[in-house]
Design a protein that fits this description.
Blueprint: H1 3-14, H2 16-28, H3 37-50, E1 53-56, E2 65-70, E3 76-81, H4 95-111, E4 120-125, H5 134-140, E5 149-156, E6 167-176, H6 192-206, E7 215-222, E8 233-242, H7 245-266, E9 269-274, H8 286-295, H9 316-320, E10 325-331, H10 342-347, H11 351-373, H12 375-387
Parallel strand pairs: 3-4, 3-5, 5-10
Antiparallel strand pairs: 1-2, 2-4, 6-8, 6-9, 7-8
Helix pairs in contact: 1-4, 1-11, 2-4, 3-4, 4-11, 6-7, 8-11, 8-12, 11-12
């Protein structure tokens, strides 16, 4: 490791206690999509204390921010932070670690600023990953227009430089029927819950003919108010995922047909509302992955066993469609720990999470230093990006 990168890695270690405190604080204050006022303020203040120029409310989103470090004309690299939580289970996706690792990578580069090659590093706070598509909103607002490469890490039960991410579209179905006494006059009612249940049954049968790299899942948001009243209203939310936008929309149309046929069979009235936050699949950039691979040993990391069947979605996919992007996974939990579980939420504040946080921060900071020092790597990344 050269002298500059040694300084960067040492800076992460020096900041270890502060970064851990930042992660624990965010974990203790879980906030849902677009409501992350505490987390955004906390991360922004930390970066300002390190010497960053911090802009709050960028892209028209109150809980988004951009913190900038400039050393002269050159490429712009973006390090991304997530910090929203899940309803009910809090930080069961470990976004507290993502936020602290991104802030730590930026802070380490700031600590070595006098030795950094010319360029710009921006740490961008990206709210609403779990629901709402904050990164997609920031893409549309132009925040990634001049970014030459974007990077982030995500906690997992193993370290992986790349894992495919599916595109996802969300839809809410509302069925309207007619209430009636469920025992005295059931024939006078039109059962909206029956339409909802029939839709879930149709989707269950659809899964038999579904490609294994696609996913459909949903919840009943409303299903009636009392057992002795025919439900006059039912609501369900569905996520439809596919490895490409074409596959995703083809499957989406079949799910729509399930809801429409259920409405016809039950004589209910269906309203389908497609949500605007479409998440795109992750566009892989092997040249950028190779930069990260070269820094795994220095960060104290090694890739774990592949898990090709464990596929998720993220709005980082939207970023990957406009600039070379990496979404690396870093082990913060024991192998086999499922995400979006209470067990993973507990792991996100365990000692292994601190180790993963610091390793992830080093991995990004060291890779950013390489990219600033060697413009040919950026050229290779952009050429690959143009071909894919």
């Amino acid at each position: 490791m050269d002298a500059l990168k040694r300084r960067v890695a040492d800076a992460v270690e020096r900041l270890g206690d502060e970064l851990t405190a930042l992660s624990l604080d965010i974990h203790a204050h879980p906030e849902l999509a677009f409501e992350e006022t505490h987390a955004a303020d906390r991360v922004g203040r930390f970066l300002a204390e390190q010497g960053f120029k911090v802009e709050a409310g960028v892209g028209g989103i109150p809980t988004a921010f951009r913190a900038s470090l400039e050393t002269g004309p050159g490429p712009t690299l973006a390090i991304l932070c997530e910090y929203d939580a899940l309803p009910g289970v809090g930080h069961a996706c470990g976004h507290n670690v993502i936020a602290a690792a991104g802030a730590g990578a930026g802070a380490a580069l700031m600590a070595a600023r006098d030795g950094l090659p010319s360029g710009r590093v921006v740490v961008i706070g990206t709210p609403a990953e779990e629901r709402g598509g904050g990164k997609g909103c920031l893409v549309e607002a132009g925040l990634f227009r001049d970014v030459d490469a974007a990077m982030m890490i995500h906690g997992f039960d193993r370290t992986l430089l790349h894992q495919d991410l599916l595109g996802v579209a969300r839809v809410t179905f509302e069925w309207e029927g007619r209430a009636a006494h469920a025992s005295v006059d059931p024939w006078e009612g039109v059962n909206a819950l029956d339409a909802c249940v029939a839709t879930f049954n149709g989707v269950a049968m659809l899964r038999q003919q579904m490609r294994p790299d696609c996913r459909i899942h949903g919840v009943v948001a409303e299903g009636g108010i009392a057992g002795n009243i025919i439900p006059e209203r039912a609501v369900a939310d569905f996520n439809v995922r596919g490895p490409s936008l074409e596959a995703m929309w083809a499957l989406y149309r079949r799910v729509m047909a399930c809801a429409e046929s259920a409405a016809a069979a039950t004589s209910t009235r269906l309203t389908a509302t497609q949500h605007p936050d479409i998440y795109e699949p992750l566009k892989r950039n092997q040249a950028l992955n190779d930069v990260f691979a070269g820094n795994l040993p220095a960060a104290g990391l090694a890739e774990g066993p592949a898990a090709p069947d464990r596929v998720a979605s993220s709005d980082i996919g939207n970023v990957s469609q406009v600039t070379p992007t990496i979404h690396a996974w870093v082990a913060i939990a024991p192998l086999g720990t499922a995400i979006h579980t209470r067990e993973f939420a507990a792991a996100a504040v365990a000692p292994a999470a601190r180790a993963g946080l610091l390793a992830g921060a080093k991995l990004m900071a060291l890779s950013a230093a390489d990219l600033l020092a060697d413009p040919s790597r950026l050229v290779a990344m952009k050429e690959e990006f143009g071909r894919r």
